[in-house]
Amino acid sequence: MDQNILAAFGTLFGTIATAIATIALWRATRVLAVETKRMADASAQPQVVATIVPNLWSTIHLDINVENTGNATAFDIELSFNPPLVNGEARGDNMPIPLQRISLLKPGQSLNSYLSGVGDYLEKNFEVTASWKISPNAVERETLSFWLNMADYKGVSYLGSRDPSVQIAEQLKNLREDWKSVASGFRKVKADVFTSADRKREDAMLQERFDREKERRENQLPKK
Length: 224
Description:
Strand content: 15-25%
Strand order of the largest sheet: 4-3-6-7
Distance between the termini: 128 Å
Helix content: 25-40%
Number of strands: 7
Number of helices: 3
CATH topology of the largest domain: Immunoglobulin-like
Oligomer: single chain
Shape: flat
CATH architecture of the largest domain: Sandwich
């Protein structure tokens, strides 16, 4: 076969192989770009979770806590509990259940409110549904539903304060109450004052001790 024909076939095959490799690389790049965008969109989404947790100050009282655990701001948040939540005595029956609708929560932001005493809450299971928008003008709403079993908190106890800030607040409260008794004269403060005369007396005692020790050592030295 003529060498020119062989060279032409070789060039043709090389061109075809290059074209096939280019198409394959384009397809792989396109798939990678689509998957990267999908992962970025999935990671930059809000996620709102509502729970009922023990109060930081008292384990026999409960708070409702709503937190955005996602990486984007959630808008127009609505919560529902089934069976419906019930206010405690401190809140009263006529007050609305707190945090059932929230305008927005930034990433990592949480809202907390006292709800009720423990009562019969530990005997209940709640179906919690949280819905929100990913932008203020969005038409569709994102929804998250899950079961909340309050029996998880049965038998739970704590040693001391669970939060350092609560512990500091308690210590400051005790300090204020102690000082209030002193300021009112109900409790007397005894103070030992160290004066200049006491300092001179202490210096004289130290000097006397030093002289005795010096004399003792001199008497122990061998005489020449």
